[in-house]
Design goal:
The protein is mainly α. It has two domains: 76 residues, no CATH class; 50 residues. It contains four helices and three strands. Strands 1-3-2 form a three-stranded antiparallel β-sheet, covered by helices on one side.
């Protein structure tokens, strides 16, 4: 994933994103990441730009923005872009679920140890 800075984009970032996606380049306006907790701080600090999701499409993206008639060598179909985005969202959800499951197990394990320790301490003190 590589960023095209807003300073190097002529005109509207939204229009540039639309053009890239229309030409088969998987790209997203950087401001859309500001609402994702994990990426929010970084996205707000970048302010303006377009993320090109596939590194091998970066050069084509820059060329399309400079010359809308440029032929994209690695264009994706709309279906391919939707599939990649859906897989990425599922991977993020699975990673988050796995993380929170591990945290829950650790918290429950620690609570169980505390309860057992409290009971044992109470029995020994009696």
């Amino acid at each position: 994933m590589k960023l095209i800075s807003g300073n190097s984009i002529k005109g509207s970032i939204s229009d540039a994103e639309y053009l890239l996606r229309k030409r088969g380049i998987l790209a997203t306006n950087a401001s859309e990441y500001a609402n994702i907790p994990r990426y929010g701080t970084a996205a707000r600090s970048i302010k303006k730009g377009i993320w090109v999701h596939l590194n091998h499409q970066y050069d084509d993206a820059v060329k399309v923005l400079n010359n809308p008639n440029h032929v994209v060598s690695t264009a994706l179909t709309d279906e391919q872009m939707e599939t990649i985005e859906a897989e990425a969202k599922n991977a993020l959800i699975n990673a988050s679920s796995s993380f929170f499951s591990r945290v829950a197990v650790i918290v429950l394990g620690a609570a169980l140890i505390l309860v057992v320790g409290y009971v044992v301490f109470g029995v020994l003190s009696a």
